[in-house]
Amino acid sequence: MKNALQDLQKQYPFENKLCSGYLDGSISIWFDEPKYLSEITCEYCQKPMLYSCLDQKNDWKRVALCGEKHCSRPRPILSHKEPTKPKQVNWQDYGLSEIEATMSLENYRFKSEKSLLRCEDFITNPSRRLWLFWGEVRAGKTHLAIGIMKRFYEKTGQNIRFITHSEMYFQVKEVCKNGGEEQLLSKFANIPFMAIDDLGVLRGTPNEIDMTYELFSRRFKRNGKTIFTTNKSPEELEAIYGARFMGRFGEAGSMQRFTRRTETAQNSIYA
Length: 271
What we know:
Elements: H1 2-11, E1 17-21, E2 27-41, E3 48-55, E4 61-65, H2 113-124, E5 130-135, H3 141-156, E6 160-164, H4 165-175, H5 181-189, E7 193-197, H6 206-221, E8 225-230, H7 234-241, H8 243-252, E9 253-258
Helix pairs in contact: 2-3, 5-6, 7-8
């Protein structure tokens, strides 16, 4: 089997090659560094299986492949086909400006790997639905919120929306003239992931407070994930929106303070 594997490696290097072929009919597989599985034998030739490829149809999990040259087990049809480029996303459709669309987790400067893992956990952990980013201006709050939101979309394909708190309020206020506020609030409430920027920038009028709390409550009940960014402290927000509003972050979320310690250390999360 080693000779057969060596022949395959000479003709088609395993690393960084996307191969099209079949194991159960027709699937695409990505070969990585091959490993032998002595504990698993091929049902066709009873030889140790080769643990060498990833099955795209099964969430890229590794699958076993027999490397025996004369085995009658279906073998992949190898090719030098390059990986397909991911579909281009028009982030402006989700509320991002041209500059904001360039923000991502890849170009965010984290203090440590632990901080990145916390972001990934927020995306995948259903019990974490709220995150408040508060602190100084130009400390990276908006950048990180957008990066997490985009990663959520890339992982799930579900709908997302970035919007400033003031823009959201004035949109609701505008449709109130025609009695369409219920439809718009329901639309916002049903978006799986929202990043709401600059919470508390308005004056805290009764109408604005009522709208904010109504949307907040609806999204909370529907288990939507929401990141708020604000320059105000939790105490200042509580004075505007009340203890019940802020208490939700203790139930299903957390609060993260951002500080711009030095000019070169902006865009860093200090967990």
